[in-house]
Specification:
- It is a single chain.
- The chain is α/β, with parallel strands linked by helices.
- The protein has a single domain, classed as Vaccinia Virus protein VP39 (Rossmann fold), CATH 3.40.50.
- A seven-stranded mixed β-sheet has the order 5-4-3-6-7-9-8.
């Protein structure tokens, strides 16, 4: 994908997502009622969240889970409904407040904890048995608070930090699940792990990768 085409797709996707996230909305996601405030990433109508739910549905999860960058909490609640205790983080207090209300509304509050922090900095190393993250993948800096859910950083530093924190928080031999789009690199991404699912987005292809903690000797960040 040429730089001009990549920049154009990024601009179009950014504009469309901003418009979609301008107003708060109530959505049904996998049978869960989810209140999504403005500027929080909506689970319905977006490819990456749906793909992660499809992958999680096929997993047998024993132990504790984490979601880094949970937004309004849809995937965290999906995990809780599977009977898995989950801790979820987000940098946005507004999104976390909605996630807490969503947990209460869906009768899942006893299986979740929500923590306000940058990426996964508040989660201890090797604390969970599976970690999930759906990081922002558009290649520009989050200078506007409205862009926290979609801006992966000009050098994808936001995306990289979230995936690395997920990797650090996961016990050795256990799985890290994360999404990435070909918009992030301008071509099919080739990070560590195996592709478990893929789907077409707004002019891009979104992938779900699984990587096992301890499977790679080099820094995960160097492979993204």
């Amino acid at each position: 994908m040429s730089l001009i085409r990549e920049s154009l797709f990024t601009l179009i996707t950014k504009t469309l997502l901003r418009l979609y996230m301008t107003r708060g909305k109530s959505q049904i996601f996998e049978g869960l009622r989810v209140l999504v405030p403005p500027a929080c990433f909506p689970p319905s109508g977006t490819v990456s969240t749906r793909l992660l739910a499809e992958v999680l549905r096929r997993q047998t999860i024993v132990g504790r889970a984490a979601e880094i960058g949970c937004g309004a909490g849809a995937l965290t609640l999906f995990l809780a409904r599977m009977g898995v205790y989950a801790v979820a983080t987000d940098i946005s207090l507004n999104c976390l407040k909605a996630a807490r209300l969503n947990a209460l509304a869906n009768g899942l509050y006893g299986l979740v904890d929500f923590v306000n922090c940058d990426s996964g900095s508040c989660i201890r190393e090797e604390a969970v048995d599976v970690c999930v993250t759906n990081p922002p993948f558009l290649r520009y800096g989050p200078g506007d608070p409205r862009d926290l859910a979609i801006a992966g950083g000009s050098g994808l530093e936001v995306l990289t930090k979230m995936v690395r924190d997920c990797y650090r928080a996961t016990r050795r031999g256990r799985a890290v699940l994360y999404t990435m789009s070909d918009l992030a690199s301008g071509r099919r991404p080739n990070p560590p792990g195996v592709v478990l699912a893929r789907g077409r987005g707004l002019g891009d292809t979104v992938y779900v990768f699984s990587v096992t903690r301890g499977a790679y000797r080099s820094s995960l960040g160097e492979r993204l």
